[in-house]
Description:
The chain has one domain (29-188): Vaccinia Virus protein VP39 (Rossmann fold). Strand 2, helix 5 and strand 3 (93-96) form a beta-alpha-beta unit. It is built from seven helices and seven strands, in the order H-H-H-E-H-E-H-E-H-E-H-E-E-E. The N and C termini lie far apart (48 Å). The longest helix is centred in the N-terminal third of the chain and has 15 residues, at 3-17. It has 189 residues and is of the alpha/beta class.
Amino acid sequence: MNGRISDILTFTSRFFAKPRFTGSILPSSRFLGKKMASLAKIDPERITIELGPGTGSITAQLINSGLPPKNLYCVEFDPKMCEIIKRKFPEINVINASAENLGKLFAGKSCKICAIVSSLPLLSLPKNVTEKILKESQSILPQGARFIQFTYNLNRVPEAVGFTEMRPVECAKVYANLPPARVDAFEKL
């Protein structure tokens, strides 16, 4: 079977098994990935962290934006998705862990991080899990670094995400995605 079709079927099966943790029935489009990468303001000399890379559609666009694979760290909870990412992008750093543990995972590296790009379904995760992820993300980002998040709620107020140490700086809507998505960029104060 074609690798791309196999990846889509794996992603879709993960959605039906755990919809709250997968968030979508289909992987993100390259158009959404391009927008997320552009809003992240990638610095190729620093680390970018991708949360929930799934089958790698956003990952590919981060690398296409000029980020060296060695400076990309993908944090994925699902071991099967980790296998897919490792197969497709053997030069990147894949970490099979929960984003709730970012502080431990990136201890001592926070000054080297330029952005966190998240595909996690923060609005459908349990509230305590989302709060922990946001707290951990804020704690490891240096001043001026960005957190990029997308949602399928096109009218969401950015402040509704729940950050306490970050401010919304940009947003964009991507209609060339199923379903259409809104991308918000936050910057560490």
